[in-house]
Specification:
The protein is 32% helix and 7% strand. It is mainly α.
Length: 165
């Protein structure tokens, strides 16, 4: 904390030794993005088994695709799909988003944050922002009643199961 302000160091997916050093010196938590994890590198720092406790894990950021959009089979190489399935323990593509949630909540990360679009399992039509584009960004809105009791119950179960009170 600086003053009364809590700081999370944003990770834009680019490894920078100076940022790593700053995080170590200040104790600020780093940011891990699940969507950056499945490059095929088994030591990718965004893979949950590589996290340390002093980090915040996100499914993606406002600049990323939704989880449902990102993990669509037609968008991934066969080897990525196989690694994703193996890593998450997903027997079928329809399980991937749920397994991402469970894997993140079960990690050692101190905080887990998902966008509501991911909780709702929405495709990229609900994406917030597409970098480098003009227009059409920041327009998605959740409609009344879209977030249901089943969503709350699933998140509550994950919080309870993994002791994230």
């Amino acid at each position: 904390m600086v003053g009364g302000t809590k700081i999370i160091a944003e990770d834009l997916g680019v490894f920078n030794p100076n940022v790593k050093k700053l995080l170590e010196e200040t104790g600020y938590p780093g940011m891990k993005i699940i969507e950056f994890a499945f490059s095929g590198d088994r030591f990718n720092e965004h893979l949950p088994h590589m996290y340390d406790r002093n980090c915040v894990v996100y499914g993606g950021t406002h600049d990323n695709e939704t989880l449902a959009g990102y993990f669509k089979p037609e968008k991934r190489q066969w080897w990525e799909l196989q690694y994703i399935a193996d890593y998450l323990g997903a027997a079928h593509q329809t399980e991937v988003v749920d397994k991402v949630f469970r894997t993140a909540y079960g990690s050692v990360a101190s905080v887990v944050i998902f966008q509501v679009q991911d909780v709702l399992k929405l495709d990229n039509d609900a994406r917030m922002n597409t970098p480098g584009t003009v227009g059409g960004n920041w327009q998605w809105r959740m409609t009344p009643g879209q977030l249901k009791d089943q969503h709350r119950d699933t998140l509550s179960w994950l919080v309870d199961t993994y002791g994230r009170f």
